[in-house]
Amino acid sequence: MTIQFAFQLLFIGCMVWAAATDLYTFRIFNSLILVLLAAFAVFAAVSVGVLDTLNLASIGWHALAALCAFALFLIFYIIGQMGAGDVKLIGATVLWLGWSKASFDYVLYSLIAGGVLTIMLLIWRRFPLPHALARVRFIKRLHIRRLKTPYGITLGGVAIWASFQAPIFQM
């Protein structure tokens, strides 16, 4: 198993964690963001020092891409359409994907998938919840109209897909 593959598995695990916790708790925990950031720092150090696959300039481009994505989605947080955890997750994800087509696709498809999820939840929440489903705590929470959309579900899923196109994992 290559080092890139091991880090990709870690990245995928973090995205599954993000999707699951957002689905069940409507939160993306800062600890997850810190794991993603720390793991990228370790990966970057290994890539520069041992693998010689990244250099300081390419790491800078990864950081710039993350800051741009974070700033773009911060607007959604400011206008109340997205949670802070979602915005931080997008920034941390784009840090891994870098300034690449994978990042662009991640942002675009996350917006589309998040919109579809929001529309589906808005429609679903207009109908009464069947009694059998009302006993399942997270489904009952998903059905509450005043709660926002748990975008971590789509952000995590799209990030997993994008990781297979990301140059950082292809080296």
How would you describe this structure to a colleague?
- The protein contains 8 helices and no strands.
- The chain has 171 residues and is mainly α.
- Helix 1 runs antiparallel to helix 2 (30-51), helix 4 runs antiparallel to helix 5 (101-124) and helix 4 (84-97) runs parallel beside helix 8.
Give keywords.
single chain, mainly alpha, 171 residues, elongated
Proportion of residues in extended strands: under 5%
Q: What is the global morphology?
A: elongated
Give the helices and strands as they follow along the chain: HHHHHHHH
Number of helices: 8
- Average pLDDT value? 92
Low-confidence stretches: none
Question: Helix/strand-derived class?
Answer: mainly alpha
Residues in helix, %: over 70%
Tell me the total number of β-strands: 0
N/C terminus separation: 13 Å
**Radius of gyration, Cα only, in angstroms?**
17 Å
> Mind summarizing the main beta sheet?
none
Summarize the structure.
The protein has 8 helices and no strands. By secondary structure, the chain is an all-alpha fold.
Q: In terms of topology, how is this protein built?
A:
Elements: H1 3-25, H2 30-51, H3 56-78, H4 84-97, H5 101-124, H6 131-134, H7 137-142, H8 152-163
